[in-house]
């Protein structure tokens, strides 16, 4: 029995134990206090707490509790006003004037002023890809009075509200001016928020625990809470993040009532949790995830589009998805696209190469035509991330079938993170292939989708260079309405497929689980704590 | 004695310098964390700016000398991820690890030494064989397997102990020990096996000695022979193994702390390694090395307690 099997067996046994005894949670705190404290197992350790500097999802998720944003997207992916009371756009689209809601306060009791927002936007726009686009076309961003600020542009930017309210990292949080003036490439050292919860720095033990307390001075909007939009009403006084690197331990702790909500139980554990009558299980994020098989466009053979297309032609997404989510067919779907299914701009245009029976012989021939002669292909596979390992194992098998000499580099994610930044020859410390995955929220349109950037040196790892793709991306940014956006998206997806910018290995969903005495848990690209209560 | 202790403490300085140099070289040979810190949206320029901000673009020798100078002043640096001083992070984590190791140590010695003594006394009988089977199991079954089984039986089934976490001693002895008993048993398996086997072997040798036969002839009771006369003379190898075994505990604590979600130094070390958080890796390894050197010194000093012929 391997470790994974052992883990499933012990978890299952734990579930039976829980059923047999019908045991309820055994709270460590007094009952009333326990009901006001939500204990949450996040997807990863909160190793830093600067949502502009640290772009990991876990930092964003914690940041959303502590800092508010000017806008916030709702479950229709529409940006809604959040800290902003209203905005005016000049006729030519070059001047945006924003007015803040009254009564906004930072956690130190100071009012949120326009100058704080301006400093926060300056810091954010230095790190975020959409922010950088705005920065490139801005004349100035400046405070007009305490509640009003203006952003003057050289050319229109129709996606402004989305940029300020999107969910993907780094997102446009508002912090006090003195903190926001910190170099965007250095960490902040004070965590004075503007959101519904206050970060308890004195109780923060990185790798073990992070604690958030309700901020009494926060004034939620009147509308119902909806993802990052609407009234962020906290129904618990305290949220404790308990870091648990071991899934079997997290599973047992949830069953034992030692924690209340687990963000990302792995699929192996799900049947066990579903059998426990005290635990609810549901899809975590309807926007799901997209598996990524990334090729290095700088070096042979993948500097030739024929080699990259050979990979797409040979890819069986079913194999990849089975390796990632197991045999639950409801958890994945084929993805002949680079964008998130079931979202307004989703398109499969140009995706025929990924549909139908796999054409291994044709892929093999195409690869040979690209000039590939059996040189070792350096494939970086992080073994400590189940999703990357699963993809790497399937890819190794597939590549061998089409005649590729695979140099399977089994390593950890830290090493992949370093090595993928190297442009050196694969034989000299560089790479040909690595694997990762994108959150579906990052692929709902071209703006936050780094994997489809094709600006050569300025593109994401692998450095694809396609002026045609970049032109289409810019065309999408300028599209005035949804119909125009959709028209561009069809051409854009086709161009990306023809260029084989990367190999999408499929779309997959993941679960979350919580105890049934917790209510108000919603599906979303991040865990939303407002509206969640515990009895 | 004092001069000996002083000499040994002074001798730790070159040892620690060598450890510091080796750790520095090994850590920095694996690259730097700037690309990880920069995130997925980073451009090469962003990574370069972060490298510069962290000082990783300076010559390695300069980085080493500056780091060493700070270490000599008691400053282990600042974590590149958490922005917290490494000393603060170690201080946050040291209590759970020390508590776990002490409870494991007490439990293991308390169980293993009598086991070894009894096995030697009953050598060749079924009792001896049963004890040695337990010892073999202790060596063979991985810590995480023992941990999961203990959690399943005693936490999920019987609800005697919590599954995970750590409660400081300051919040009461019962919650403190409740959180540590299962991890200590899981971690102590190998340690118990090691000590029990060495105790048995040493006791077997001692029990053949003339003075034991003389004691028996004088009518001294079996318990006194075993635990007063024989065990004291068998103590030096046992104490040595207990000391060496602390290294095992340090290694095992990494797994145990993960399985039982104990916020200790083991998890801190693993997290730091996976993230390439160099200052934390260097700080923790240096601290463990120093602790190990000091434990060896204490063991050497303890020899004189058991054998008056040993003088320093």
Structure explained in plain terms:
The complex is a heterodimer of chains A (535) and B (312). Chain A is α+β, with helices and mostly antiparallel strands. Chain A has three domains: 3-15 and 37-52 and 60-65 and 187-286 and 512-534, D-Maltodextrin-Binding Protein, domain 2, CATH 3.40.190; 67-180, Dipeptide-binding Protein, domain 1, CATH 3.90.76.10; 289-508, Dipeptide-binding Protein, Domain 3 (Dipeptide-binding Protein, domain 3, Roll). Chain A has helices at 3-21, 31-35, 57-66, 114-127, 129-136, 160-165, 177-180, 247-255, 270-275, 305-314, 317-325, 360-369, 386-401, 413-419, 467-478, 482-499; strands at 37-41, 71-73, 79-81, 84-89, 95-100, 138-145, 148-153, 197-199, 209-214, 238-242, 261-262, 279-283, 289-295, 332-333, 376-382, 405-411, 433-439, 503-508, 511-515, 518-519, 533-534. Chain B has helices at residues 2-29, 34-38, 44-54, 60-72, 86-121, 126-140, 143-157, 173-206, 210-217, 222-259, 265-275, 278-306. Chain B has 312 residues and is mostly helical. In chain B, helix 1 packs antiparallel against helix 12 and helix 5 (86-121) runs antiparallel to helix 6 (126-140). In chain B, 78% of the residues lie in helices and 0% in strands. The radius of gyration of chain B is 24 Å and the shape is globular. The chains are: A alpha+beta (535), B mainly alpha (312). At the A-B interface, helix 1, helix 8 and helix 14 of A face helix 2, helix 3, helix 5, helix 7 and helix 11 of B.
